[in-house]
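STRUCTURE:
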């Protein structure tokens, strides 16, 4: 591909030229960071040509467009991925070698754009990659947060949050597009004006404050197909740049306030994962990027189409969770207030253009906004939602006459609150969950009433991940090995991996496969030594749990089990024990106290165990600081065991589970989220499944919970471990350090239900599954086969498949081929 545009020598020249232009330096005077900027500009140059080509092709074909609206895009670094998708990685590596630079080191200069928290944001990024690769016209729309998710430092075992100033040195892959700026209005009041000529009321927002939304475009490079789509993230600027000569006091204040509004709105990403905090600024962020995105989409549509009634034929707005649900009301506002449509016409268009994805059933993540806050900030949008609600209630009443219970449960506005999920369901044509089990739970439990009313709207789209980043880029050794055996078709057609199944019993293949795993473990061990100062044994089992820290994900159960193993080793030093390294990586939301205590506990346990000479290095515990997309790629490649141990029914899908599987790590997990489908693909004999089922958990929950005390009283191993939380074993004698964790499990003085996430109930079956892991690992041939089969059976979990299902069943997009 690179050859189509310029040769290696030309590339080298262009890097040198860029260094000169940017820094007035010769290449051998430049720092690695400067070379990164210069290389990125050279690559961007190629991308821009394809970007223009794509634009032209879209203008010619006029395909249907999906706008993927998301508060979060967890993109990870772009340079390596762009080179991969341009099929220029190896050529550029060589070119840089010849210039005396190492591409890996250059890649490491790039800040990790972390405009997302976890699974939901990363899914959006994988989807963009697949959309471009499959040749669909798609725009990601989001926010250009000046600070992404915080960087995590571990100090004295505790998480400390450090601001992530990712734009500090300028980000080479973005393009500012001030010519497409949009005005977004907040506050004020609505004046109604009767138009005698048409007999209609006009609604005019007055006394408002506004900000200018400025788009920055990032290229999304498709794999080997010259398509370059766009991620458009909006920045905010004050509308009338602060004028010092404004002596009128009212004006002066307004100018300052508008300036502040613009500054604050895009300042920082809220760092919560699966938890909703009703902050006004968050609501501002939502309306800000939605209003700008929808205005831009409508303007674009009108440029090449004469009739807005055709909008649903040409556009879908996909809402990534409820955060962009304002879309429903904003589209209504534009169609009714600005395009002068009747309510009925506008509603028909809106409800055939919007579609909603649900990512969680956790009650605390459901978005509800107090109506005072909402109506003050967005007076016109609120009026529209009131009208949507009024009509929706009429519909409910006509379907279920006299059923007040339905109204109470389903209303969009109820009890002083606006319920965003209800608005998203009423205002769209599709509602999807993100794994089979999750969608079934939505239909049978959380959204039961809505499912009964609109069964045709509900559908499942099991998540997926892009193999281009998480195998081709993250695990080059395995990627090459696979290509040597089955060709490179898997890069764009992942189910071809099943061709590897014939090698499952092949001794040579097994050895090569495990040898690659070993090399990846050595690479990770080196990283751990450099970053943690801990020496780990690459011959030990690398048992890995990396994901956001949340109680339902049960990192606590994992570390309690480590404590339990340690007790066993201490009690029975002679007992055969296969060396294990337990690796954790997780950020806790800054305000999530119990999650942060769990991080401290993991580090405290690590401290004691790693420094206990008497156990001969049989057990090591590592907490990898600042888990993020870039180190994730390396971690998945090096894992032997994939910990997916959420309380059944709580993890909507999970996507890390798929990345581990792709890289040949069997799942140790519960029957939750997409784990269920992973087991379906790879077979129960190639996974380690344990614990309560989702039905059992839901059953307990609906019947008042369960009693963890019975486990504490009857099981000495469990009691021992729990007592160690409060007897100073891991806290240098401090009895209180982990008291709250202890209490959370046994409810001795807390208000929540004890052990909300069934850790004690699942503990012993988890420990038993861990024993099975050890037993399986001891049998080298068996393990190699298992690992290989995990890779071979992971084809379903490509985001290319997920996107094709969205296209076929929800979006109905047209395929685009450059040059056709
Ligand atoms: C995640 N949700 C799910 N939310 O937990 C996970 O099972 C699923 O695989 C993934 O979505 C993709 O579908 C998630 O990451 C958030 O982080 C929200 C951020 C904003 C506040 C509410 C939670």
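SEQUENCE:
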């Amino acid at each position: 591909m690179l050859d189509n545009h310029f040769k290696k020598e030309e590339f080298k020249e262009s890097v040198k030229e860029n260094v000169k232009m940017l820094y007035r330096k010769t290449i051998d005077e430049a720092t690695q960071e400067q070379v990164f900027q210069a290389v990125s500009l050279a690559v961007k140059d190629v991308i821009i040509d394809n970007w223009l080509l794509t634009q032209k092709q879209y203008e010619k074909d006029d395909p249907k467009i999906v706008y993927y609206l998301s508060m979060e895009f967890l993109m990870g670094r772009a340079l390596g991925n762009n080179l991969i998708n341009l099929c220029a990685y190896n050529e550029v590596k060589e070119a840089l070698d010849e210039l005396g630079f190492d591409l890996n080191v250059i890649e490491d200069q790039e800040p990790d754009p972390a405009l997302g928290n976890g699974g939901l944001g990363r899914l959006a990024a994988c989807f963009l990659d697949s959309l471009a690769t499959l040749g669909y016209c798609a725009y990601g729309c989001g926010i250009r947060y000046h600070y992404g998710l915080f960087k995590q430092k571990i100090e004295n075992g505790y998480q400390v949050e450090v601001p992530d100033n990712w734009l500090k040195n300028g980000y080479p892959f973005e393009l500012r597009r001030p010519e497409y700026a949009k005005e977004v209005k907040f506050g004020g009041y609505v004046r109604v004006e009767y138009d005698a000529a048409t007999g209609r009321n006009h609604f005019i927002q007055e006394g408002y404050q506004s900000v200018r939304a400025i788009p920055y475009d990032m290229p999304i490079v498709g794999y080997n197909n010259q398509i370059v789509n766009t991620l458009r993230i909006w920045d905010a600027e004050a509308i009338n740049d602060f004028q010092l000569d404004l002596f009128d006091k009212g004006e002066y204040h307004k100018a300052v306030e508008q300036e502040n509004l613009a500054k604050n709105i895009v300042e920082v990403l809220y760092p919560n994962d699966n938890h909703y905090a009703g902050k006004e600024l968050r609501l501002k962020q939502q309306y800000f990027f939605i209003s700008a995105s929808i205005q831009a989409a409508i303007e674009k549509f009108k440029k090449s189409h004469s009739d807005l009634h055709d909008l649903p034929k040409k556009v879908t707005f996909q809402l990534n969770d409820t955060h962009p649900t304002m879309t429903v009301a904003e589209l209504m506002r534009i169609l009714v207030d600005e395009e002068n449509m009747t309510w009925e016409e506008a509603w028909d268009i809106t409800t055939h253009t919007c579609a909603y994805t649900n990512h969680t059933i956790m009650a605390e993540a459901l978005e509800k906004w107090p109506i005072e806050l909402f109506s003050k900030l967005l007076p016109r949008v609120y009026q529209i939602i009131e009208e949507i609600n009024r009509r929706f209630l009429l519909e409910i009443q006509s379907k279920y006459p006299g059923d007040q219970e339905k109204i109470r449960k389903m209303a969009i506005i109820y009890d002083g609150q606006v319920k965003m999920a209800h608005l998203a369901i009423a205002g769209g044509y599709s509602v999807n969950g993100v794994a089979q089990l999750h969608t079934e739970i939505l239909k049978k439990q959380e959204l039961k009433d809505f499912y009964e009313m609109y069964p045709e709207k509900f559908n499942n789209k099991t998540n997926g991940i892009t193999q281009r980043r998480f195998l081709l880029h993250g695990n080059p050794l395995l990627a090459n090995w696979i290509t040597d055996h089955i060709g490179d078709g898997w890069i764009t057609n992942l189910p071809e991996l099943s061709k590897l199944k014939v090698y499952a019993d092949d001794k040579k293949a097994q050895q090569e496969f495990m040898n690659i795993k070993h090399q990846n473990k050595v690479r990770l061990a080196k990283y751990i030594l450099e970053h943690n100062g801990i020496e780990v044994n690459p011959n030990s089992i690398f048992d890995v749990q990396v994901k956001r820290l949340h109680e339902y994900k049960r990192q606590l159960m994992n570390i309690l089990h480590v404590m339990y193993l340690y007790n066993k080793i201490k009690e029975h030093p002679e007992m055969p024990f296969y060396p294990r390294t337990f690796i954790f990586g997780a950020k806790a939301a800054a305000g999530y106290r119990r999650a942060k205590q769990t991080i401290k506990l993991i580090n405290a346990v690590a401290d004691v165990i790693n420094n206990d000479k008497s156990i001969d290095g049989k057990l090591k515990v590592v907490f990898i600081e600042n888990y993020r997309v870039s180190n994730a790629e390396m971690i998945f490649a090096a894992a032997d065991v994939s910990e997916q141990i959420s309380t059944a029914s709580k993890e909507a899908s999970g996507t890390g589970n798929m990345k581990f599987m792709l890289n040949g790590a069997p799942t140790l997990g519960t029957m939750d989220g997409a784990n269920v489908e992973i087991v379906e693909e790879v077979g129960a004999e190639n996974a380690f499944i344990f614990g309560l089922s989702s039905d059992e958990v839901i059953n307990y929950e609906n019947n008042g919970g369960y009693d963890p005390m019975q486990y504490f009283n009857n099981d000495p191993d469990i009691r021992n471990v729990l007592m160690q939380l409060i007897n100073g074993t891991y806290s240098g004698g401090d009895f209180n350090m982990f008291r709250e964790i202890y209490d959370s499990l046994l409810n001795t003085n807390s208000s929540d239900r004890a052990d909300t996430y069934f850790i004690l109930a699942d503990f012993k079956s988890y420990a038993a599954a861990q024993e099975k892991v050890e037993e399986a690992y001891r049998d080298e041939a068996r393990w190699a086969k298992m690992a290989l089969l995990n890779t071979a059976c992971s084809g379903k979990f490509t985001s290319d498949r997920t996107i094709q299902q969205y296209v076929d069943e929800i979006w109905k997009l047209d395929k685009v081929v450059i040059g056709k």
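REMARK: The first strand starts at residue 65 and ends at 69.
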